[in-house]
Amino acid sequence: MESKNVNNVPQKSDDDLLKLINESLNIPKEGTIKKGVVVKVTPQEVYVDIGSKSEGVASITEFKDVQIQPGDEVFVYVDSLDGPDGRTIVSKHKADFIMAWDKIKDAYQNNQTVEGKVQRQVKGGLMVEVFGVSAFLPGSQIDVKKVRSISSFVGKDIKVKVIKINRARKNIVVSRKEVIEEEREKLREKLFELKEGQIVKCRVTSIQDFGAFCEVEGFEGIDAMIPISELSWTRIQHPEEVVKQDDELEVKVIDVDQKELKITLSLKQLMPHPWEKVKEKYPIGSKVKGIVKKIVEYGFFVELEPGIEGLVHISEMKWGNPPAHPSELVNEGDKVELVVLNVEVEKQRISLGMKQAKPDPWSVVDEKYPVGSITKGTVKDFTDYGAIIELEEGIEGFLHVGDISWTQRFKSPKEALRLGQKTKVKILNIDKKDRYIELGIKQLYPNPWEDIMKKIPAGTDLQATVKEVSQRGVLVQVDEGLEGYVPASQLHKKGDPRENYKEGDVLNLRVLKVEPHRKRVLLSEKEFYRAQEKVDVEKYRSQPAKINLGEILKTEIEKLRELREGTEEEENQTSEEDKE
Fold first, then answer.
1. Which one of 3.30.565.10, 2.170.190.11, 2.40.50.140, 3.40.50.11540 gives the CATH number of domain 111-183?
2. Can you identify the CATH homologous superfamily of domain 192-270?
3. CA angle 168, 169, 175 (to 5 degrees)
């Protein structure tokens, strides 16, 4: 209850008086935020004058992200007026958090983008200062793509969104990724304004080996690049031959990637194409001259004039089969005469032919080499089934291994011919369309098999020398250039032929069959000896009988012995009868 003085004026109570005194002195209260002045800084603590009976004390760790020194003004939260040792305990962190909370809450609720400064790297991400307080930026929320070096963000100012808050735990989580995705979406919408073929202005921001990166006017923040192939119509080794950093250019949009937010530009397409004149200067079918500049596996490059080169493919170097390597026909620096086969302006290519500069020998091949005619050729190569014979430059024919000899069988053409050998051949067939000539050597001579069949018909006995022995039989040389075959079943000796016969043995044989299609004579050793045995038997039977005296005498002696024994028995019987 208020008291009254003599003048009837209400008197204040002691509590009210104390309150008025505290207010006049601005004495801080626990749980409030006060503005104070730093008076002392030690390695462990910061002392702040907040107008209380003693200075407020805060841990130095609360100031490690800022440079603090005496005289600085700071806001602190009064934790305790009478803490340990009677000291006033204050906190900068709590003050910062309370003062910033409304702003953080508003940014969270309204999905606002806010500025932040990366303080340090921690486990799982980064600590970012937002509105003066620390917030956690997880590693997964730093960028839309994988970040190679998280530490590279420390000390940088970045834009973030508040994606999670908890006041009780003083927990704030932010995301830079969401800001990037939002900005990319805005840029993606803006990209719809840009069309292919549009002419725009840009500034070169950086140069790489593969092209120049640019910033397109009105589309800042979107990746734009001029590939090295779009900088010049002529071949260049590096983009710096054409552009430099910070160059202002007028370019043509050739591709817009809405999904990846990329723009591809071209500088050369706003310049006249030099190859348009090349096409007029070197029409298809025209004859040109050039210098061999470079030889590769698949052909060689020819300089027609400075900056203009064409390719002669290996298949266009000579008529007939191409060379094994272009260097067989040309060397670098050679002057050559060629024919233009094709001109591709966009690809800056000229296809040239060397063989076309000379008449095609195949155009008159059937006149020059009619079927049945005999000519000479050179063995150029072998295949498994025959030999390639060159009749003249650009014209080659094929000699099958079966057309080398009437009587000899060759497993490979190399057994009968050698590379570089010149030989006579007969033209058997010509396919002008497919550029194919069939040749023969055996057709130069009459087929001898009729004479062979007359000379050694079935049943003829002969001697032959063993050439080769296998498990299945024996190959023999019947005559020069003529082979015979004795199957294992027709050999006189039983068992494995390889154990009983050897090369060089001379065998007695009988002709079973002459086989022209197999180029051999089928023979039998067994039949020879069987026939020989019959001859011997017949010869024996046809000879007169010979008297064998020994046998006759032996027989006569036996007869005399039997006669003597019979006489003695009779005499004995007579004597007995007389006695009786």
1. 2.40.50.140
2. Nucleic acid-binding proteins (2.40.50.140)
3. 115
What averages of pLDDT result for each successive group of 10 residues across the chain (580 residues)? 46 54 60 85 87 82 79 84 79 81 87 91 92 89 86 92 87 90 80 87 92 87 88 87 92 88 90 81 92 94 88 91 90 94 87 91 87 92 91 89 87 90 93 89 88 87 91 89 90 91 92 87 90 74 55 59 53 42
Provide the pLDDT for residue 276. Answer: 76
Q: What is the pTM of this model?
A: 0.42
Burial 485-517 (b: 16+ CB within 10 A, else e): bbbbebbbeeeebeeebeeeeebebbbbebeee
CATH 1.10.1040.10 fits 456-541, yes or no: no
| Domain at 275-357, CATH homologous superfamily | Nucleic acid-binding proteins (2.40.50.140)
Domain boundaries, the chain: 15-94, 111-183, 192-270, 275-357, 361-444, 456-541
Distance CA 439, CA 416 (A): 15
Query: Which DSSP string do the residues of 331-378 spell out, in sequence order?
Result: -TT-EEEEEEEEEETTTTEEEEESGGGS--GGGGHHHHS-TT-EEEEE
